[in-house]
Give the backbone structure.
Amino acid sequence: MNKYVFYKRKSTDSDDKQVLSLDSQDQALKEYLPKLIPDFNESDIVADYEESKSAKSPGRQKFNEMYDMIEKGKANSIICWALNRLARNPIDGGKI
């Protein structure tokens, strides 16, 4: 059984510097997931994380919570709008 974690991140607290807002990332994920994963069911989402922090350095709280869920087996798949939403530093990139 798939246990999905949604992860949405924007780089700063300023919307004028962000390519896609957190709400837009959420809408895009929900629109495209049924097309990409035919057996996708929203009940398989075990957590939904959002944060507004740069990923250039390790230490993001929500990222670390998400990673802990995966390490503990509470989730087994991460769904995000783009890979650079997860990591832009070698430590977090190595974890993923």
The beta strands are 4-10, 45-52, 77-79.
